[in-house]
Design brief:
Blueprint lengths: L2 E4 L12 H12 L3 E5 L4 H11 L5 E4 L4 E4 L4 E4 L4 H13 L12
Length: 107
């Protein structure tokens, strides 16, 4: 068994998920190998995309590694940052004129 993981935006989905990529993933998994998506996107966002696109995943890693789920979307591990520290980081980003900052207390 081998395992392969892919980012979603601009990698797996590059102007849509091509049929060639879909066929390759089905073939890969039919050989007993595992496939998953690793994304900086929020868990609910990537889970919805996987379901809408009907991509068979054995695992999902979302929120830059903070959430790990099985292929059915069952969360196996979720790490939430300390809200005070996250707010301090966001304040620093904003105070230093960075373009984007987002703080969320949800998955």
């Amino acid at each position: 068994m081998k395992i392969i993981a892919s980012d979603y935006d601009g990698t797996l989905d590059y102007n849509g998920i091509s049929q060639r990529v879909r066929d390759a993933l089905v073939h890969w998994q039919s050989l007993g190998n595992k496939f998953g998506i690793v994304s900086g996107r929020g868990f609910q966002s990537i889970l919805q995309i996987v379901r809408d696109e009907k991509v068979s995943c054995d695992f999902l890693i979302a929120n830059n590694g903070a959430v790990i789920a099985d292929g059915n979307g069952q969360v196996l591990m979720a790490h939430k940052g300390c809200p005070d520290i996250v707010r301090d980081v966001a304040d620093f980003v904003i105070d230093n004129s960075c373009r984007y900052a987002c703080v969320s207390d949800t998955e």
